[in-house]
């Protein structure tokens, strides 16, 4: 008893001590942080590093002391960058919403189209229209077209990253084709034959029926099939223009035929049975494990060294090759390619108007990473991460080791093709192949959802019903009923009308 | 004692059932441990499922501890857990004890206020504003102080203290003890089991801290373990947005999971015995 008493007493004292220490430590921070957040901008430029708070989704950022890019940017710009990245999109949204609501604005942050609309209407974003002259180097870098992507109600509210290039195609197991004495499929009929043979013909020769034909990320697995029917489809319906008429994939006259063909594939057992449950990179895992022969995926996820090694580890004979989009009744397209999409939109809060020193630094930084600093945020430090051979960038080994996070600082994007060919010299043919494949140009990325249209609900409903058609749970004859329900209970008509209006405004429709 | 056939069958069934239940608890853990110490090529060859490792490597752990922010995050989390639990326990005890004494003026009013917070909370944004105006943003204290007391635990402690016989306090007073002395020398020593139990609740809560970190902390060097681990796990959940991202392998993910949960698993058995003493039961033990 006595012992317990003493132990308890010491515990209490220690705990109390810690509590006191806690309060003591908290105090200086309190004044420090509070002062920073609340005090107006210092009038004089004190020559002190300007602290810039930047948030965006992302991952893999090292701590500041190991972050070469941060250090170099700080040195060049006289800033103290505090970049925070959030691995989960939901976390990022939470953080951004809370900070916007409590007026503790980051100095630069990414938004999506919806947030751009919401925040600009609430007057929280800085109208960049007046700053276009100052931002000229940035605008030159991203291109005038990209400026449209950050435009809302006629004003520029965000800087869009320079556009990317398509990565996705069908990939097929060459060694399986050889084993079954098949040719790479060139038409939809051949695709069917091959996919069915991969399921039934035991292409891995283990005597078990444990393989199947086609997989991909949910409906994305069929993008190219829709493409062969002339339908632009990118995991979900796209908006494209045909003879100056706006078409939504769902209303494409070929849609029923395409769904019927896919149903035929499903009925033959040639499609990954867990297709609609594939989240994240599960379809890629299946490909690496040798369970599937055709996959719709981007080249990085199958040819990067890391994955190439894994594929070899499972089966040394495995050989994946890219497939040209097969010919179908509507042509041959890999997928649609949304010209309204951008990898990210960066916005500046309106509150920075009152803090010209900071605002100038943000603009200076955006201009810097678009011009002189462009190489830094792409390839790192010259002489360390890369060397220049004339004009060509020759990466060193260190770039491969440390360069995985540099993209987080590419606020205005990068010259995509050039960049990829430096960083992925080995993958060059795949990059070019995917880029050259035909795509249907689509415009959905430009469209802002009108009042009364809930995109999340509509998207879910569309996916559910399309799945039913494909799996024969709902006869294709009911397709028109499906469209009617979509229009009546999901306000799809309002969305389409709005889309038409906005595309006319942007000049894509006459 | 002679066992009838019926007894034996019953025993067998019970053993079988419990054995299955235990297996159900152990197998997933075994899977995680095994994958984390098996070379990735071996894992993939087996279709991603391994229970007993055929080859052993600790490279995933090595990578985890040298190439990620884990060691730093570990230190942050350890601090939050220790300091946070200490703050929690002191404040909870200091709050619960007076509320348990019938003599305390305004007792029902304070109790009502506590109950009120359990039913209605301010919400994320008001809380954020409070944390911000206290200047706690971007400090470890933002992960400790906003949740310094959990109302529910106060009520548990209160009912525990109420179980102590009034005579105990009377005799102490007759012997000349004042309130502080009664608290420190009688109440606290008697409530060690319940303190430890509640301490474990708090501790696990702090160890799993991640929401407040996401909300209040933007300085990467202050991120606790769970945020970093979550980042490692989330990376593979989303389709690749940037070609140059190097994704953590499955073995590395599993190693991260082990790293995050091992300390709690280790601590648990030492505190577990106090659970058996119970905290909702009476205070005076035979």
Automatic annotation (TrEMBL), chain A:
UniProtKB keywords: Cell membrane, Lipoprotein, Membrane, Palmitate, Signal
Any Pfam family hit: SBP_bac_1
Tagged with keyword Protease: no
Signal peptide location: 1-26
Protein name, UniProt field: Extracellular solute-binding protein
From TrEMBL, chain B:
The keyword Repeat is assigned to this record: no
Pfam (any one): BPD_transp_1
SUPFAM superfamilies referenced in this protein's UniProt entry, alphabetically: MetI-like
Regions annotated as coiled coil: none
Domain of life: Bacteria
PROSITE patterns: ABC_TM1
Membrane topology term: Multi-pass membrane protein
Key word Cell membrane present: yes
Residue ranges annotated for the ABC transmembrane type-1 domain, each copy included: 74-270
InterPro entries in UniProt: MetI-like, MetI-like_sf
TM regions (residue ranges): 12-33, 73-97, 109-131, 143-161, 182-204, 252-271
Localisation: Cell membrane
Keywords assigned: Cell membrane, Membrane, Transmembrane, Transmembrane helix, Transport
Family statement drawn from the similarity comment of this UniProt entry: Belongs to the binding-protein-dependent transport system permease family.
Protein name per UniProt: Carbohydrate ABC transporter permease
Classification lineage: Bacteria, Bacillati, Bacillota, Bacilli, Bacillales
């Amino acid at each position: 008893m006595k012992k317990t008493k003493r132990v308890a007493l010491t515990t209490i004292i220690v705990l109390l001590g810690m509590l006191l220490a806690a309060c003591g430590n908290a105090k200086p921070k309190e004044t420090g942080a509070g002062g920073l957040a609340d005090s107006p901008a210092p009038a004089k430029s004190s020559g002190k590093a300007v602290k810039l708070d930047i948030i965006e989704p992302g991952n893999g950022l090292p701590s500041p002391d190991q972050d070469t890019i941060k250090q170099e940017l700080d040195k060049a710009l006289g800033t103290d960058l505090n970049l925070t990245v959030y691995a989960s999109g939901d976390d990022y949204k939470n953080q951004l919403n809370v900070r916007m609501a409590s007026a503790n604005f980051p100095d630069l942050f990414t938004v999506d189209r919806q947030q751009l609309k919401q925040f600009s209407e609430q007057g929280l974003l800085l109208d960049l229209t007046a700053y276009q002259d100052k931002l000229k180097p940035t605008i030159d870098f991203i291109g005038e077209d990209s400026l449209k992507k950050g435009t809302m109600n006629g004003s520029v509210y965000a800087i869009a990253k320079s556009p990317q290039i398509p990565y996705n195609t069908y990939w097929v197991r060459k060694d399986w084709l050889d084993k079954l004495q098949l040719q790479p499929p060139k038409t939809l009929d051949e695709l069917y034959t091959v996919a069915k043979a991969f399921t039934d013909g035991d292409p891995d020769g283990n005597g078990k029926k444990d393989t199947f034909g086609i997989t991909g990320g949910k409906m994305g697995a069929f993008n190219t099939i829709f493409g062969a029917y002339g339908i632009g489809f990118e995991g979900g319906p796209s908006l494209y223009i045909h003879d100056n008429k706006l078409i939504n994939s769902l209303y494409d006259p070929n849609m029923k035929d395409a769904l019927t063909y896919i149903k035929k594939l499903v009925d033959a057992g040639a499609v990954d049975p867990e297709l609609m449950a594939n989240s994240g990179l599960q379809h890629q895992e299946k490909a690496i494990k040798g369970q599937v022969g055709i996959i719709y995926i981007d080249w990085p996820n199958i040819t990067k060294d890391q994955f190439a090694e894994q594929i070899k580890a499972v089966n040394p004979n495995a050989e994946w090759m890219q497939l040209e989009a097969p010919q179908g009744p509507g042509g041959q397209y890999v997928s649609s390619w949304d010209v309204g999409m951008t990898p990210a939109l960066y916005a500046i809060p309106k509150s920075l108007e009152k803090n010209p020193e900071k605002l100038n630094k943000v603009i200076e930084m955006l201009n810097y990473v678009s011009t002189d600093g462009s190489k830094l945020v792409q390839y790192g430090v010259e002489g360390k991460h890369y060397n220049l051979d004339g004009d060509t960038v020759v990466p060193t080994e260190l770039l491969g080791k440390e360069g995985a996070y540099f993209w987080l600082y590419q606020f205005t994007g990068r010259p995509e093709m050039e960049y990829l060919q430096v960083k992925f010299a080995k993958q060059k043919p795949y990059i070019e192949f995917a880029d050259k494949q035909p795509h249907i140009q689509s415009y959905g990325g430009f469209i802002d959802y009108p009042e009364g249209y809930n995109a999340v609900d509509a998207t879910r409903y569309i996916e559910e019903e399309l799945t039913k058609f494909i799996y024969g749970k709902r006869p294709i004859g009911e397709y028109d009923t499906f469209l009617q329900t979509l229009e009546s209970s999901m306000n799809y008509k309002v969305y389409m009308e709005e889309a038409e209006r906005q595309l006319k405004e942007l000049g894509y429709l006459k | 004692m002679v066992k009838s056939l019926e007894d034996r069958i019953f025993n067998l069934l019970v053993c079988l059932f419990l054995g299955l239940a235990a297996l159900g608890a152990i197998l997933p853990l075994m899977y995680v441990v095994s994958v984390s110490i098996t070379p990735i090529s071996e894992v993939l060859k087996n279709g991603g499922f391994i229970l007993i490792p055929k080859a052993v490597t600790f490279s995933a752990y090595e990578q985890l501890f040298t190439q990620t922010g884990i060691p730093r995050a570990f230190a942050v989390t350890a601090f939050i857990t220790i300091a946070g639990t200490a703050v929690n326990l002191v404040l909870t005890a200091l709050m619960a004890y007076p509320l348990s004494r019938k003599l305390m003026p305004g007792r029902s009013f304070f109790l009502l206020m506590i109950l009120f917070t359990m039913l209605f909370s301010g919400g994320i944004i008001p809380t954020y504003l409070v944390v911000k105006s206290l200047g706690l943003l971007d400090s470890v204290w933002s992960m400790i102080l906003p949740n310094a007391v959990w109302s529910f635990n106060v009520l548990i402690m209160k009912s525990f203290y109420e179980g102590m016989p009034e005579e105990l306090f009377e005799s102490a007073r007759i012997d000349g003890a004042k309130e502080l002395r009664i608290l420190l020398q009688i109440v606290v020593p008697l409530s060690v089991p319940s303190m430890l139990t509640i301490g474990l609740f708090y501790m696990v809560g702090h160890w799993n801290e991640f929401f407040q970190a996401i909300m209040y902390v933007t300085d990467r060097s202050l991120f606790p373990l769970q945020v970093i681990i979550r980042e490692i796990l989330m990376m593979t959940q989303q389709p690749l947005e940037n070609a140059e991202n190097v994704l953590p392998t499955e073995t590395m993910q599993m190693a991260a999971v082990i790293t995050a949960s091992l300390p709690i698993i280790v601590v648990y058995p030492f505190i577990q015995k106090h659970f058996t003493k119970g905290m909702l039961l009476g205070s005076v033990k035979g």
